[in-house]
Automatic annotation (TrEMBL):
Residues 87-187 form a coiled coil. It is found in: Membrane. It is a single-pass membrane protein. Keywords: Coiled coil, Membrane, Signal, Transmembrane, Transmembrane helix. Pfam families: SH3_3. Residues 1-22 form the signal peptide. It comes from the Bacteria. Residues 22-88 form the SH3b domain. GO terms for cellular component: membrane. The chain crosses the membrane at residues 192-210. This is SH3 type 3 domain protein.
């Protein structure tokens, strides 16, 4: 059955104040859960647990409606089984999601910071590389200088060895010449000795023959007379 148009307008006008007074609301899942020493409400309360706390489920009694649990600190007790869930509470899930969203929102800034730090490290490594390259070039120059010095030292050593050989050869030659000189000197002395001896002998012979020659000449002169 369709309502007349005027009646529909009237009902809508009456409902407008009610719609204006309504506000969105949410049922919170935050509440305290009593943890007792036994499986009844008469047992002593050990601790008040917050909604969303994670516990270890040890056993469940369907008759009493209680479950035995152990907290993160190791305390064991009993809570109503209907107050346990197989997954975190909606509040904790929302908190986790909000934290994840915050992490995702802050990720670009963190990445920018990391990128800036990496850029600084890159620049620092570039400077260190340049410094190491300069040090390498300097060491190469020093190595070349040392190699040239070593080459000169080897050449000088070879030249010194050659000079030593030449000096040794000259020393042997001088010794040979001295020996030859001594030999020649000895031969010369011997020759002069022989000459002197011959002169002495000749003088003696002349001294012996000269009177005889004079006497012979006198005899010849006497014979001629």
């Amino acid at each position: 059955m369709r309502l007349p148009f005027q009646l529909s307008i009237a009902l809508l006008l009456l409902a407008l104040p009610l719609l204006a007074q309504a506000k969105p609301a949410y049922i919170t899942d935050t509440f305290k859960v009593t943890m007792r020493s036994g499986e009844s409400s008469t047992h002593r309360i050990l601790r008040m647990l917050n909604s969303g706390d994670q516990v270890d489920l040890l056993s469940t009694d369907s008759e009493s409606g209680y479950s035995k649990i152990r907290t993160a600190s190791g305390l064991e007790g009993y809570v109503l089984s209907r107050q346990l869930m197989n997954q975190p509470s909606a509040r904790n899930q929302l908190k986790t999601l909000q934290q994840r969203v915050h992490e995702l929102e802050s990720a670009p800034a963190e990445l920018s910071g990391k990128l800036a730090r990496l850029q600084q490290q890159h620049d620092s490594l570039q400077q260190e590389h340049k410094a190491l390259q300069q040090t390498k070039n300097q060491l190469n120059q020093e190595l070349q200088s040392i190699q040239r010095t070593a080459s000169n030292a080897i050449r000088i050593s070879n030249e010194r060895n050659d000079l030593r050989k030449q000096v040794a050869d000259l020393t042997r030659n001088v010794a040979d010449l001295r020996q030859q000189n001594r030999d020649l000197s000895n031969e010369s002395n011997r020759d002069w000795f022989l000459i002197g001896a011959a002169v002495v002998i000749a003088g003696i012979l002349i001294g012996l023959l000269l009177p005889h020659l004079r006497f012979q000449r006198r005899r010849n002169n006497w014979g001629a007379l």
